Amino acid sequence: MVKEIYRYSNPHPEGKSVTDCVVRAITIAVEGDYLEVRKHLNRIKKELKETSYKNRKFMDKYTKLNGWKKISFPAIKGVPRLRGKDFVKQYPKGTYILNLAKHVVTVVDGVYLDTWDSTEKMIYNAWEIKWNEI
Q1: Which of 3, 100, 114, 132 is 20 to 30 A off residue 24, Cα-Cα?
Q2: CB of 95 within 8 A of CB of 71?
Q3: Which residues contact 32 (CB under 8 A, 6 or more apart)?
Q4: What angle do CA 95, 123, 66 make, to 5 degrees?
């Protein structure tokens, strides 16, 4: 039996498919309410004097503010970057938010939860989530 590493998940209250990967990922990771998470992110964005929460700079500040442990996967010349299907083998348990190439996604106990399968994308960073409240 092959283990499932992707499952469709869309916490948007109207089920819309929109470019909201940061809100979606954090909502799933903290088991929160989508609209409350979006309000929270907008408030924190203003407090941090950022123009968007859809960038790595904001994610670095936000995750540090929450005390989430950062795991980096730096580029090594001649070595392919880690991809999602390999990440879930190395980190089969726990809740993580991954910063992929042009995307952010949540992985819970080795399963990508998102509106599309991004398990082939390269991973730049991951944050281990240790609490489930915003």
Answers
A1: 3
A2: no
A3: 26, 132, 133, 134
A4: 45
**If residue 55 lies in a helix (H) or strand (E), which one and from where to where?**
none
- Write out the two tokens for 75: 């580029």
Contact assessment for residue 96 and residue 128, using Cβ atoms and an 8 Å cutoff: yes
**Low-confidence residues of the chain: pLDDT under 50:** none
Per DSSP bridges, beta strands 123-129 and 103-108 are: unpaired
CA angle 73, 77, 83 (to 5 degrees): 40
- Reading the block at residue 64, the tokens are 């540090």
Q: Which amino acid is at 68?
A: W
Neighbour count for residue 70 (Cβ, 10 Å): 13
Phi-psi region of 84 (alpha: psi -120 to 50; beta: other; left: phi over 0): alpha
**Residue 85, SS3?**
helix
Can you tell me the distance from the alpha carbon of 31 to that of 134, in angstroms, rounded to the nearest whole number?
9
